[in-house]
Amino acid sequence: MKFNIHGKNVSITDAMKERIEKKLSFLEKYLLIDAETTANVVVKVYPIYQKIEVTIPTKIGLLRAEATHDDFYSAIDIAIDRLENQIRRQKTRLSRKYQDKLALAFIDGEEYGEEVVLEDDVLVRTKQIHPEFMDMEEAILRMEMLGHSFFIYTDSDTEKYSVVYKRNDGGYGLLETI
Q: What domains are there in the chain, each with its CATH number?
């Protein structure tokens, strides 16, 4: 694993860097992290406390944790604990969801009418994405890891854009483009 460690209002010492790398290397036992995975760590120092932000993009999804404490080393420990809890929670959730075959989770969609957009609705955020090639099972896995209710991807079989989403009744839905 590679490390990208930055400090805001603080210069990162060798001891701080070693501690961060040692703690984050411990997470490799939980994840399928290859040599190209980069862990991004931002250390921020404020007058009263210190804040650690850790972001690790993995093949499965994005892992992110923040921790604040008056001691730098305690903040690192808290952030690592939060990452471990996040990984365990996702692994448990995924193992429960995929006990049955994934194909059984898909339920035929219902026809929905057009949504009425009120004049008071305002666009808050615009985001551009580049849908990656993957199969439906991997798209559902990434959606669950991110905690989102939908996921846009390019189907590796049909090479068309698709959207997998969580249904209110607990199943999954799939939107395919023509």
A: 2-97 (3.30.160.100), 102-112+122-176 (3.30.505.50)
